[in-house]
């Protein structure tokens, strides 16, 4: 029983997908590579960073990050290289520049538009004339009496 609990504890810990053959000899560069790979999305797993993913494409991206850092690129240059190659979708935290402003602002804009339309509808409905209860004509009153007497 104790062995089972010990095994479960080891399995419950975080598992990183970085393989030993990917690790750089320089601990500073390796630390930078790990930081960068936590900011990049695995294109196969979608909402998982390449640091956590076991997919082959994630491995290729991890190796590419390390190659760029060994070549002397700064963190921003390495990220820009990968974004140029794979597109902005590879970033786990998208930027708020360019066409992305439209995407970032679309939700709040639609909410304000719907609230405005709802307010206009409710004000128009409040200003609409209410149906008046007209009194019955003498013919209608006579017909009502006949129906009730039956």
Automatic annotation (TrEMBL):
Residue span, CcmH/CycL/Ccl2/NrfF N-terminal domain: 6-148
- Disordered: region residues: 131-150
Q: Which UniProt keywords apply?
A: Cytochrome c-type biogenesis, Heme, Iron, Membrane, Metal-binding, Signal, Transmembrane, Transmembrane helix
Q: Which domain of life is it from?
A: Bacteria
**GO cellular component terms?**
plasma membrane
Residue ranges of the TM segments: 101-122
On whether Transmembrane is a keyword of this UniProt record, the answer is yes
Give one GO term, molecular function aspect.
metal ion binding
The record, for Pfam families, names: CcmH
For biological process, the GO terms are: cytochrome complex assembly
Coiled-coil intervals in this record? none
Entries under InterPro entries matching the protein? C-type_cytochrome_biogenesis, CcmH/CycL/Ccl2/NrfF_N, CcmH/CycL/NrfF/Ccl2_sf
The entry sums up its family as follows: Belongs to the CcmH/CycL/Ccl2/NrfF family.
Function per UniProt:
Possible subunit of a heme lyase.
**What name appears for this protein in its UniProt entry?**
Cytochrome c-type biogenesis protein
Q: Give the organism the record lists.
A: Phaeobacter gallaeciensis
What lineage does the source organism belong to? Bacteria, Pseudomonadati, Pseudomonadota, Alphaproteobacteria, Rhodobacterales
């Amino acid at each position: 029983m104790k062995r089972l609990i010990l095994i479960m504890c080891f399995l419950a810990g975080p598992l990183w997908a970085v393989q030993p053959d990917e690790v750089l000899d320089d601990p500073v560069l390796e630390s930078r590579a790990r930081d960068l790979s936590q900011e990049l999305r695995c294109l196969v797993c979608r909402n998982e960073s390449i640091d956590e993913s076991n997919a082959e494409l994630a491995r290729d991206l991890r190796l590419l990050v390390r190659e760029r850092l060994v070549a002397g690129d700064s963190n921003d240059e390495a990220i820009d290289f990968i974004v140029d190659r794979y597109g902005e979708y590879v970033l786990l935290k998208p930027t708020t520049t360019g066409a992305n402003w439209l995407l970032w602002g679309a939700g709040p804009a639609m909410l304000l538009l719907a609230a405005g339309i709802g307010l206009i509808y409710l004000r128009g409905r409040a200003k609409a004339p209410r149906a008046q209860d007209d009194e019955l004509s003498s013919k209608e009153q006579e017909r009502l009496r006949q129906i009730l007497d039956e």
